[in-house]
Amino acid sequence: MPLFEDKTTRRANEEHQLDIDFDSAMYNAFKEELKGFLLRKSRRLLPFELVKDKLEIWFARNMGIQAVPIENIVGSEGRYRSFTRQFLPLQEDLRDRWKKVNQARYSKKDLPPVELYKVGNAYFVKDGHHRVSVARTKGSRYIEAQVYEYECDVPLGKDTDLDKLAIQETYHQFLKETQLRINRPHSDFQLTLLGGYNILMEHIQAHKYYLEKTNAKKIPVYEAACSWYDRLYEPFVSAIRKNGIMQRFRHRTETDFYLWVIKNRRKLIEEFVENEEAENLVEAYVWKYSGPFRKIIGAFKRFFGLVRY
Questions:
Q1: Phi then psi for 213, rounded to 5 degrees?
Q2: 174 within a domain of the structure (yes/no)
Q3: Model confidence pLDDT, tens digit, residues 97-112
């Protein structure tokens, strides 16, 4: 510490520390972007306008002031290009405002709540991007926020990125067309890969054709979807849960497993089982595909984006 420290020196030191903090945040943002490039995984925030459009959410309700987990803030309204997924600053023109917020934190000044939109368990910044950035950089786990919540028929969370948003968009369209969220409200059809909902719709359309031939009358899609769920899908899910099979496939869902078994049904019948009972097919699939070698091959395919239904 210098022998004579006046206000000008203290101010210069404070300014220097604020610049160091911002430069460090920018450097960490570069490392985050580089890591995302190497792992082929986007490290950018989700554009809230895109989420609204794809999931067709239009009306929000005021939820008041809440303490929100910062790690659940995944996107932004209008400034998604300015920060990384971890809300680290990407642009030099953010420096002045970022430093002012950081200085307020050093001075222990009260900052106004940020404003967030909530969709599922994911949050998007309406106002207060710099406050969120500084708070997260400083290691804060929660931030005070005025929250406006949008109702949505598909789940979003802290892991939602552009790839998962594309899946949720097709999930939303699937639920909209089949009305299964209304008629079977406790059902869950979450998938982890694109393309699966088209296959589910093909199954429902095939079941619809069967019902129409059997009953000699037209069957609406929502009615065929309910029949498919009760007579075909639910027995498979019950067999999956009964055997605790998903413990071996923690990165996947029951609906993923349903599609895999159906896709390989003929081969499983030819090689392992004598009938098409759901439980027999499920157990045969696990026996065939859960070995260590298969797991290594599966991990390799997932990393390079080669997994298909």
A1: -70, -40
A2: yes
A3: 999 999 999 998 999 9
